[in-house]
Write a structure and sequence with these properties.
- By secondary structure, this protein is an alpha+beta fold.
- The protein has helices spanning about 1-10, 15; strands at about 20-30, 35-45, 45-50, 50-55, 55-60, 70-75, 75-80.
- Strands 3-4-7 form a three-stranded antiparallel sheet, with no helix packed on it. Strands 1-2 form a two-stranded antiparallel ribbon. A two-stranded antiparallel ribbon has the order 5-6.
Length: about 80
């Protein structure tokens, strides 16, 4: 297992490029202005060092306070990568 992690640490794009990860993001409802967390699906297109990069996107989410549907759009995404084992 340690050898696999060492290999992935040297070349993480082998495992991560093309995968979708979930990133929590705090948002504000445009109707009631309450803050809550949505989970953004981020598709990794490239890896540079300890960061994964992906394109933007959009998601619809219902506010847990007022029940209204909000649409959230984001531009290019970045996630920090930590390999553990």
């Amino acid at each position: 297992m340690k050898r696999k992690l060492d290999k992935l640490a040297k070349n993480p794009q082998q495992l991560l490029v093309g995968r979708t990860v979930e990133k929590p993001h705090e948002v504000t409802c445009e109707f009631c202005e309450k803050e809550y967390v949505v989970t953004l699906p981020l598709k990794i297109e490239r890896v540079e060092g300890t960061r994964g990069y992906g394109p933007g996107g959009s998601i619809k989410a219902e506010c847990p306070a007022c029940g209204k549907e909000n649409e959230y759009t984001w531009t290019d995404s970045v996630i920090d990568i930590t390999l553990t084992g």
